[in-house]
UniProtKB/TrEMBL annotation:
It comes from Nymphaea colorata. GO terms for cellular component: apoplast. It is found in: Secreted, Extracellular space, Apoplast. Belongs to the plant dirigent protein family. It comes from the Eukaryota. GO terms for biological process: phenylpropanoid biosynthetic process. Keywords: Apoplast, Secreted, Signal. Dirigent proteins impart stereoselectivity on the phenoxy radical-coupling reaction, yielding optically active lignans from two molecules of coniferyl alcohol in the biosynthesis of lignans, flavonolignans, and alkaloids and thus plays a central role in plant secondary metabolism. InterPro entries: Allene_oxi_cyc_Dirigent, Dirigent. Homodimer. This is Dirigent protein. It holds the Pfam family Dirigent. Residues 1-27 form the signal peptide. Its main location: secreted.
């Protein structure tokens, strides 16, 4: 058996230099980028928000409605397979009559067969106050009967452009029919 021969160092250096000059090189900045408007990033700052989420599934004007379910959902202890769309008010205080500062818009569904664990994908859209016109996007698992649940903040717009962080949820009130008020502490 013969020995494998490897390229010489000079050959390797030549190939490397040719790759640097090639149009497919990742190391080069594309022409259109240098000619486009440059994005200015400001220094990062930490913002802490506190508000209440009012999810109403009952009554004449529910803010959350079931839009889909699996054939087996009704037989499941965790309601596995249901999907709900929401447009819930966010308030400054615990009471539903507190000042509305935004909306939680998105959907949640039962994604756990062992316990009631929701997959939530939602946007906090702020309509009043310092962050009016800005949004935060949240995605994560919400095991609703745990005292505190943590979900990821994965983005935002306006004052929260490039946001990342977390949202801590605590159930403050739950009715027998499923209406709920959840306290949120968000750090971005």
């Amino acid at each position: 058996m013969g020995r494998l021969s490897f390229p010489s160092q000079a050959f390797t250096l030549t190939v490397f230099l040719l790759l640097l000059e090639s149009p497919i090189s990742c190391a080069r900045t594309p022409r259109h980028y240098s000619e486009s408007k440059q994005l200015r990033l400001t220094p990062e700052r930490v913002t802490r928000l506190h508000f209440f989420f009012h999810d109403t599934v009952s009554g004449r004007n529910p803010t959350a409605v079931q839009i889909a379910s699996a054939p087996s959902t009704a037989k499941s202890l965790t309601r596995f397979g249901f999907l709900t769309m929401m447009d819930d008010p966010l308030t400054e205080g615990l009471k539903p009559t507190s000042k509305v500062i935004g909306r939680a818009q998105g959907m949640y569904g039962s994604a756990d067969q062992a316990e009631l664990g929701l997959l939530m994908t939602l946007t906090y859209s702020f309509t009043d106050g310092e962050f009016k016109g800005s949004t935060l996007s949240v995605l994560g698992r919400n095991p609703v009967f745990h005292p505190v649940r943590e979900m990821a903040v994965v983005g935002g717009t306006g004052a929260f452009r490039f946001a990342r962080g977390y949202a801590l949820a605590r159930t403050r009130w739950l009715s027998p029919v499923g209406d709920v008020i959840v306290e949120y502490n968000v750090t971005v």
